[in-house]
Structures are given as structure tokens and as C-alpha cells.
Amino acid sequence: MPKTPQPQTPQPRPTTNRESNTTPPVQQYRLQIDMTHCRARGACIDFLPSTLTDDDDGYPVARSARGNLRRGVPVAASDIERARAAERSCPRRAVIITDITPPLQG
User: Fold this and answer.
1) Is residue 105 assigned to a domain?
2) Has residue 2 been placed in a domain?
3) Within a domain: residue 104?
4) What band does 26 get if pLDDT is binned at 50, 70 and 90?
5) Which residue among 1, 13, 91, 100 has its CA within the 20 to 30 Å range from the CA of 42?
6) What's the CA gap between 86 and 47, in Å, rounded?
7) What CATH number does residue 79 fall under?
8) Residue 9 above 70 pLDDT?
9) 32 CB contacts (<8 Å, ≥6 apart)?
10) Alpha-carbon separation of residue 9 from 5, 6, 41, 45, 68 (angstroms)
């Protein structure tokens, strides 16, 4: 006796999730000093000695020769907690940390 074909249950189509196929971008931060508010107290320098040093008058300057604190200097992800502490400790709110991580492309 011939077998009667059994109806096949459709298999679910594999779904593709674009986000699962993309690697999230690395968090990137920028540190700026608003020099119109800075009064050279030095707290930011104490928190970020690898990023900042002081000039002859005690004002913060970027350690990198190409760094410009008005435009912003990069902060390593490993230093972000110290950078946030420097931002909180500034009595004049002259330290500004900005998240510049590029958005996910989707």
C-alpha cells in the first residue's frame, strides 16, 4: 500500500536581527574645560593626571601636544570614572564630559 504523503509543517523562517550582526561601537568620551569658568583649583588635574597637567598659572592643559581643552580631548574608557569624578568635583562646573559614541547603524 502506498504511503499517503503527510502534510509538512512549515518550518519557521530564520529571522535576521541586524543588531545582532553588528558590533556595538566602543564608548567614546571627550573632556572639555570651559576656561571662562575655570579658576585653576586643580581638582580635575588630580583626578586625571594621565590626561591633564597644569600650566605656570595652575590652569589645566592637555598632556597631549595636540590636545585642546576648548575643543575637547579624548578620554580613555578606562578613565571615564575618574573623568566623571573630576566633573563632579569642579566647584565652577568648568569640566564637561561628553559621550561622543557614534550611534548604531541600522
Assistant:
1) no
2) no
3) no
4) confident
5) 100
6) 6
7) 3.30.70.20
8) no
9) 69, 70, 71, 72, 73, 95, 96, 98
10) 12, 9, 73, 67, 64
Grid look-up 598659572 returns: 57
Q: Is the pTM of this model over 0.85?
A: no
What's the CA gap between 25 and 16, in Å, rounded? 20
Q: What single string gives the DSSP state of each residue in the chain?
A: -PPPPPPPPPPPPPP--HHHHSPPPPP-EEEEE-TTT-----HHHHH-TTTEEE-TTS-EEESSTT--TTT-EEE-GGGHHHHHHHHHH-TT--EEEEE-PPPPP-
Q: With the CA atoms of 91, 100, 58 and 48 taken in that order, what torsion angle do they form, in degrees rounded to the nearest 10?
A: 90
Is 14's pLDDT higher than 60? no
